User: What shape does this take?
Amino acid sequence: MAAISNSLSLKHSFSLLLPLPSNSQDVRDAARTFVEHGMADGRLCIVTKEPYAPYERPALTRAYLFPPDKKPARLPGFHTCVGSGGERQTPEWYKENVIEMLYEDPVKDIDIEKHTLTTSSGKLLKYGSLIIATGCTASRFPEKIGGNLPGVHYIRHVADADTLILSLEKAKKVVVVRGGYIGMEVAAAAVGWKLDATIIFPEDDLLQRLFTPSLARRYEELYQKNGVKVLKVIIGIGARPAVSPFERVGQNTDVGGIQVDGQFRTSTPGIFAVGDVAAFPLKIYNRISRVEHVDHARRSAQHCVKALLSAQTHTYDYLPYFYSRIFEYEGSPRKVWWQFFRDKVGETVEIGNFDPKIATFWIESGKLKGVLLESGSPEEFQLLPKLARSQPLIDKAKLQNATSVEEALEIARGSLQGEAVV
Assistant: This one.
């Protein structure tokens, strides 16, 4: 599966390439899965826009941004499967497993009929199978309103984070545009630098697509206690799937990205798409979705490669999952870590006073559809996906009368087992 460039001769009848201008963890996990199946040696090539081997991208808006006295994360520290275990995948790991890397040379064109890609430098790459793992690109402000001015930063790559750190070293004030979890993480990191920080977002509440209004207010208050100002104005920015130059492979006009089936196959034979860019059947909720999250990036890549290399035929069955870790720097008075598994449907029941624990349960037609937990124990966090996937019938009144997060979770655990918990 070796990539074939204009300077290489054909060695294998089956070649695989993974273009990588954006998302790293999906490519990294795909490569690891090939190695685990004994199919990487000389058969695999990764084509990337960056000068680095795949790394743990979520760190860029968390520990990577910490000031020097707060023990910041740096490469090669997260050239590894931090969230899913496994050995450290440094550049040397790819060499040892005979995986070819083409750095700083992204794909600019594809010839579907000839099974070839052309890179920015003019290399012609021939593939037998192609996995598109291009992730998303950061949306940018228009130039006419200052989108390219010095001091305006967009984070997607290590180089972006490095440039931001240089600004943080000199800055007195930081303004974060958009109140999603990336914006929340960057604002929390700015607090570690003791800077005057403000979050500006267009919605009524912080992280509105995930949090309930009540929960959002709790987090807004937490940020304000840490000196972060919150402003709600009419402005919008985010990320978009990086489909260029693969538009001809087949796009989904409703959710964006490249349309795939439950094995991450596109409508073009031999071409697959995984991670942020894939519009896939979300089996548990019976709809087509795109998920921009590291957990899905890892799992979709693993599922795709296993389907490619083996007789695996079962449909990808993903449970949407989100989490964030903020204020984790050394000396922080309170470290925050939340997780949730859910579909955004039904009524909500909130338990706890955020001191530090709080839990929110989503209930529809008597069924527990999802749950969010702040500051839980490892055992409590392990309960969440079981609840969200099983969607058990639950006594809403009993849940509402719980006097603590621990009691509420025990009620939920009992509903999972079909027991009456008093």
In short: The first strand starts at residue 16 and ends at 20.
